[in-house]
Amino acid sequence: MKKIMILGIGPLSIESTRKFHGGGNRAWHIAKPLLDAGYEVSLICMRITDQTQQEQPDEVCQNRGKLIYYSVDEKKCFAQDQYLRGKIGEHKPDAIIGACDYPAARACLTAGDLPVWADIHGYPMGEAQAKAFHYQEGGYLHHFWNIHRLALLRADRFSVTSERQRMALIGELGAMGRLNQYTFGEELATTIPIAWDPETPFAIRTREKEDPFIVFFSGGYNLWCDEKMLFTALESAMEKDERIRFLSTGGAIEGHDDKTYPCFVDRVERSKYRDRFDLRGWVSREELIECMGRAHLGINVDRNCYETRIGARNRLIEFMARGIPVLTTLGTEISQILFYKGLALTAPVQNAAALANEIILSANHPEKLNHMAEHARKFFEAQYTYEATVKEMKEWCGNPCHSGDFGRPTVLDYRNPFAPESSKGNLFESIRNKIRR
After folding, report:
1. How many separate domains does the chain show?
2. Does the N-terminal peptide bond of residue 420 adopt cis geometry, omega within 30 degrees of 0?
């Protein structure tokens, strides 16, 4: 059986932590089916920035049968080529998978001649645009692109979280010259939608119509979260219906988005319904599960942006798995799928009034919500478990191979045609040379 190394973002979904990143679910999403199939897996995850956690050693290693798991400091270990190449030399994998864009770039820079699968979890340039808008700083585009293009240039296979993103990625590969005579006919990209552990406990909500109705939000208030629409809809629903409550776990994403959640909190603090908002912030895994057990409706509210249209949402899949009825703005691919199948309540983006009406209607129909949640769980079990989503990746891991253009010079000339003749240079060739080193 082959040996596979996975580079990812921690903490994993199986770890007890106050802050859980979607990347941690993605790393385990990929690792678990490979372990179940008998592969030997070495998993190296960088720890996300979290000032609330106690200081940890640069490297923490756990040996769990066929899994060797390293939780490591980002700057001192994960960002160091020498460290990653040392682990590659120690474990001698047959291939490397980078789970999320930055780990994929790190895999491409350190893999040498090993085959690399780049899992682009979420739409990087849509996220870059959202961040540039939030902070009114175009430099974020360069930051995200300088990471993303490393994977685009070097990886042998790619996976993404939606069919829309797969088309976007193919366009990016074309712009990089990867759609060439050597890769003609190859399936360079596949879709691995966000999935969740099939062992996740499912629970039907128990509530009488006259009881308080708890709307629940979980996770990071990220760049594409429309916090103004969320608040406006909640306050409007509370004004019209005294049963409506709001429970939130999660908050600002340290070092990434420290604006959206504070803006939401400020609105809540000034609301005349402040006592009906329960903002817990980042909580322990045990408290999170307890809060989910109290939720009557899980909510997701997205901005109108390209990240929304092309990306995906971890929280929607977890809501489905746990039996929490879903209300979401209609923007992401997964929201469209659930809408067409009648497995979620939806509202248009930028329409707080419609969202408020859906909240109030939901409070009046507990039986309908339970029925919808039961069918959503069955759909989850069929389509969105770890095992159900990674068939193509598992097949590739059984016989990892390079793309047809591996090791060949770039096809496209990316010299700046507007630059003075003396300063022209092939930018992508210099990047390729860096990767080869």
Report:
1. 2
2. no
Same-domain check for residues 222 and 324: yes
Q: Could you list the residue range(s) of the whole structural domain that residue 328 is in?
A: 213-384
Burial class (CB in 10 A: 0-12, 13-18, 19+), 416: exposed
Assign residue 232 the CATH number of its domain: 3.40.50.2000
List all residues 6 or more positions away from 358 whose beta carbon is below 8 Å from its beta carbon.
327, 345, 346, 347
**Per-position pLDDT tens, the chain of length 437:** 799 999 999 988 777 776 777 888 999 999 999 999 999 999 999 998 666 667 889 999 999 899 999 999 999 999 999 999 999 999 999 999 999 999 999 999 999 999 999 999 999 999 999 999 999 999 999 999 999 999 999 999 999 999 999 999 999 999 999 999 999 999 999 999 999 999 999 999 999 999 999 999 999 999 999 999 999 999 999 999 999 999 999 999 888 899 999 999 999 999 999 999 999 999 988 999 999 999 999 999 999 999 999 999 999 999 999 999 999 999 999 999 999 999 999 999 999 999 999 999 999 999 999 999 999 999 999 999 999 999 999 999 999 999 999 999 877 766 656 656 555 555 555 555 655 55
Cα–Cα distance measured from residue 220 to residue 366, given in angstroms and rounded to the nearest whole number: 27
